[in-house]
Amino acid sequence: MSEPTPPFPASGWIEVIVGSMYSGKTEELIRRLRRAQIARQKVEIFKPGIDDRYARDAIVSHSELRIPSRSVREAGDILRYAHEAQVIGIDEGQFLGPGLVRVCERLARRGKRVIVAGLDQDYRGKPFDPMPQLLAIAEYITKTLAICVVCGNPANRTYRKVRRGGLVVVGGADLYEARCRRCFELGRRVSAPESPSPPGGSDETSPVRPRQRKPRPRRRPRRGMRKKG
Ligand SMILES: [Zn+2]
């Protein structure tokens, strides 16, 4: 993948890597950070404390690439540890809140190369703050695509397979899958997650389609859709 080369020495900049889950964002982030380390640049790597799915003290890609990192509670914490660094890597930027934008700008102003990976859309397909704001101010943007698990087309959406409330529900393949635009919309039409889950009634293991309680006029396919064959 093409990678920016520094325009002038001592000029900082922001790179953003966005895409759905399973699109290789973290892998790409790790690749860039490793290359900087090989060049003996001072690298500091951060991730939000909320995401300890794979490790507390490392960023781990789905392909099991791994690089040591520091967990932070909020974006402002990054400034405390970034003084010496030439290159700053941040994973799962969507969990670090609106303050991340100012933090990245401050770091870039100090001459640092800042690389942020994150989800650009939430499970509803809506822009996932603060990634849209970061995309607007970044010098370099990379969009990564996954493969739709339903039809095999390029996928840029993250589909939540269970009906569980809240914007932020950290999970892996048990909760989320990559889908193309069409399969994402078909799935959501079937499961109708726009309506909030009933109080106390969110079923963590319920499938995409709510269980049918009454017979319906038209039988719908299981799991929302089937691969046409
Ligand atoms: Zn699809």
Order of helices and strands: EHEEEEHEHEHEEEEEH
What bound compounds does this protein have? zinc ion
**First-last Cα distance:** 34 Å
Structural category is: alpha/beta
Number of helices: 5
Q: Roughly what percent helix?
A: 10-25%
Which spans of ≥5 residues are poorly predicted at pLDDT below 50? 193-217, 219-229
**Which whole number gives the mean pLDDT?**
83
Q: What is the CATH domain class of the domain at 13-144?
A: Alpha Beta
Question: Radius of gyration over alpha carbons?
Answer: 19 Å
**Assembly state of the chains shown:** single chain
User: Looking across the biggest beta sheet, what order are the strands in?
Assistant: 5-2-6-7-1-8
CATH architecture assignment of the domain at 13-144: 3-Layer(aba) Sandwich
Describe, in plain words, how this protein is organized in 3D.
With 229 residues, the chain is of the alpha/beta class. It has a domain at 13-144: P-loop containing nucleotide triphosphate hydrolases (Rossmann fold). It contains five helices and twelve strands. The chain has helices at 25-38, 77-81, 99-109, 131-137, 181-191, and strands spanning 13-19, 43-48, 58-60, 66-68, 70-72, 87-90, 113-119, 140-144, 146-147, 154-155, 157-160, 176-179. Helix 3 (99-109) runs parallel beside helix 4 (131-137). Residues 193-217 and 219-229 have low confidence and may be disordered. Zinc ion binds at residues 148, 150-151, 153, 179-180, 182-183.
Quickly describe the structure.
By secondary structure, the chain is an alpha/beta fold.
